[in-house]
């Protein structure tokens, strides 16, 4: 009701005059990482410089990423990122005192993983824990002298899913 100039007016509204709208967002539930420690350390061991000069690589050291898959995912993709060794493309460059070697990554089947390039796909079953297994090793750089000392390297991994 409205009062205008001493007169009372009423307006009747019909259902056609009322606008009722609905909105919201649908999301795909996130896949979760199962993390015991936010910094995984893969100890590649201690090697004799002479041994590294006579082998194409050191023995593989396994490591893994555990994920709890979301109910909607049927596959996940993993991409390892990091500072690439220019003399051995696809391998991880070292930081520290040691020199003349790089870190190679590979799948559980022994296939080389190219850092910053290979997007590895794995089938998953919704809601189940999945262990993605990999390994790392040292590879001498051709034409470079191997220098002794401590080293480290960091790689990040990116997991994506539809």
Automatic annotation (TrEMBL):
Its main location: other. Transmembrane segments: none annotated. Residues 21-161 form the Fimbrial-type adhesion domain. It is found in: Fimbrium. It holds the Pfam family Fimbrial. Keywords: Fimbrium, Signal. Belongs to the fimbrial protein family. PANTHER family: FIMBRIAL SUBUNIT ELFA, FIMBRIAL SUBUNIT ELFA-RELATED. This is Type 1 fimbrial protein. It comes from Metapseudomonas boanensis. The lineage of its organism: Bacteria, Pseudomonadati, Pseudomonadota, Gammaproteobacteria, Pseudomonadales.
